[in-house]
Automatic annotation (TrEMBL):
UniProt keyword Chaperone present: no
GO terms assigned for molecular function: beta-N-acetylhexosaminidase activity
Protein name: beta-N-acetylhexosaminidase
Residue ranges of every copy of the Glycoside hydrolase family 20 catalytic domain listed in the record: 159-327, 332-476
SUPFAM superfamilies, per the entry: (Trans)glycosidases (SSF51445), beta-N-acetylhexosaminidase-like domain (SSF55545)
Catalytic residues as annotated in Swiss-Prot or TrEMBL: 324 (proton donor)
Residue span, Beta-hexosaminidase bacterial type N-terminal domain: 21-156
Amino acid sequence: MLLTGLPATAGPVTAARQLSDVIPAPAEVKANPKADFRLTPFTQIRTQPHSKDATRIGHYLARTLRPATGYPLPVVPARRQHLPGISLLLGKAAPRTGTEGYQLDVARSGVTIRANTPAGLFAGVQTLRQLLPADIEADRVQRRAWTVPGGRIVDYPRFGYRGAMLDLARHFHTPDEIKAYVDELAQYKINHLHLHLSDDQGWRIQIDSWPRLAPEGGGPGTGVDGEGGGYLTKADYTDLVRYAAERYITVVPEIDMPGHTNAAQSVYAELNCDGVAVPPRTDIEVGYSSLCIDSEITYTFVEDVIRELAAMTPGPYLHIGGDEAHATTDEDYATFMNRVLPLVYKYGKRPFGWNEVAKVDPPASTVPQYWGTTTQNADVAEAAARGSKILMSPANKAYLDMKYDANTPLGLQWAGFIEVRDAYEWDPGNHLDGVGEESVLGVEAPLWSETLRTLDDIEFMAFPRLPALAELGWSPRATHDWGSFSQRLAEQGPRWQLREVNFYRSPQIAWP
Ligand code: TNX
């Protein structure tokens, strides 16, 4: 383009993008090769007038595109349209785009993203970002053409819940590390972040009514091998919730009980049946701890924690764990859950539990999270038959802490090795007997931290498998195709490199 002073093909570092080169695969794509759009130094970002959300998303887009283009990209209200631009408009999107989808039109004269909600606009912005050449992720000016392939995308999710879980208990991860992960999750249209805030090795959230819990249960020397200390203050947590919400990600906090409670029981003696505090633990055993089911103080404690956690959590869900309670009898487990589930409702939240919670016939609005490794679970199937929605996290497909293969330096292997193709090749809507598409709330990718300390460690396990799970959660089944996915995934490699995101160079992918 004349105005840019750049030759049309300046610095073609990466191949031209196709309109369908997006993860997760969009629902509907109609390319129009004659309608490519080119960003120029005069491009404006025009946002829905009088919409704070659209303006904020416009600034987010501008911040994303400025470093590599060096263009000013002013964010202005979408009124007059005489300069080429990117328009972010609320309303008038195809009805099937629903509450999270969007419609993206690329023509020579401009790019228009329309959505019924800000969340949809934000999703459309992520698509636009991926449609630009990978160099757009550079933190310094790249002299090259910035072309967006022409045509129309109409896109919307298959499942309403697309999640990632981070275990802060086995090793604490700092707010900055969590935010960096959130930034990556948002690009793949993940909309929930589940924080595993307590376990045997650590307690990671400030609770005012039990003031020693976090400073002692999450202090120096806690975590696996005593090397994972730290906790979130209420201010940290609130700031994280806000940061995630600005990226249309809802935080789902988890306090694991009645097992996985050694950290709390090592700080407060009264949480043990014999009134004696247990020693802190830094090993990776599971299934040995249990709250004292017959003691009233247990329920005072649980209610205090749920009340304080619910008060700082704007999202609708609160996860109460419930897994691997091997030190609790079945009868005690039912007694406990039948007292604690109502407490979650009392404070206005909808309970999540690991799939063991299905054993107690919880109300239909309680969500069992399936983490088994087989395709059969009678309790979960019965819950689905009673109307429960199930969250799918089968450990042999969706666990990001499983090793890729025998040589992976990090991770565990109790659920098997999970290469990127294994993470991709299953159908959440047809995986578990008796749990069909209509019973599935969505897909979540848990990342347990027994072996993970740094952000580099987290990223190495999450990428490239997280995008595979994100695609299973968002894209219609009809788009499912390993050949297409593996090519689109390969193109994410240079983007991760430019963003300094660590990833596993899976031999299954032809990285450029
Ligand atoms: C099982 S999955 C656990 C966690 C471990 C994880 C390690 C689940 C509900 N419980 O306590 O961290 O395996 O992969």
